[in-house]
């Protein structure tokens, strides 16, 4: 090919490519990486499929027992009635279609904390927690100090 033909082809190609591709080399490199990222991701997925399989039970358990129950917290702020729609017990409709409770959704919280037994329950909870902390925190430290004072090496290793 002649130089004129090469220049003509180069000009034709450059006219089809937007100006920003040539103006920022870092963005251009990112764009090239993004274009090939799907194929690269699929290769990585196929290569590490057994690791993902090993990871999936823990991920599923985390979602089922750690994230999905968070949606149930909505019930505490709603005037929940699951049978308003005539379909029997319908948890999803009851959670999302029930009206908000009075006092901006805090009706049941106000009722709970105004009960006379609630002050006793809170006091008992805090006192039991504090006693648990006070009794369980120093015990491992004292045990470690006692083990450190043992003279017989074999008994020290076995007991630790």
Question: Termini separation (Å)?
Answer: 83 Å
Task: Classify the secondary structure makeup into a structural class.
Answer: mainly alpha
Shape: flat
Question: Strand-and-helix sequence, N→C?
Answer: HHHHHHHHHH
Percent strand equals under 5%
The major pleated sheet works out as: none
Account of the protein in words:
By secondary structure, the protein is mainly alpha-helical. It has a domain at 115-159. The chain has ten helices and no strands. The radius of gyration is 33 Å and the shape is flat. The mean pLDDT is 78.
Feature tags:
single chain; 160 residues; mainly alpha; flat
Question: Quick recap of the structure?
Answer:
With about 160 residues, the chain is mainly α. About 70% of the residues lie in helices and about 0% in strands. It has a domain at about 115-160.
Provide the fold topology:
Blueprint: H1 3-16, H2 19-23, H3 25-35, H4 37-47, H5 49-67, H6 91-97, H7 107-113, H8 116-136, H9 138-148, H10 153-159
């Amino acid at each position: 090919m002649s130089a004129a033909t090469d220049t003509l082809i180069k000009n034709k190609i450059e006219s089809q490519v937007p100006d920003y591709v040539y103006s920022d080399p870092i963005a251009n490199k990112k764009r090239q990486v993004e274009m090939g990222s799907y194929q690269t991701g699929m290769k990585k997925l196929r290569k590490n499929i057994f690791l993902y399989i090993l990871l999936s039970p823990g991920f599923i358990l985390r979602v089922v027992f750690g994230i999905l129950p968070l949606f149930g917290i909505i019930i505490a702020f709603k005037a929940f009635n699951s049978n308003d729609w005539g379909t029997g017990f319908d948890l999803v409709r009851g959670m999302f279609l029930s009206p908000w409770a009075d006092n901006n959704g805090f009706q049941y919280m106000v009722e709970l904390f105004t009960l006379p037994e609630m002050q006793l329950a809170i006091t008992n909870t805090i006192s039991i927690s504090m006693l648990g902390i006070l009794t369980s925190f120093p015990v491992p430290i004292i045990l470690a100090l006692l083990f450190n004072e043992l003279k017989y090496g074999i008994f020290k290793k076995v007991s630790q």
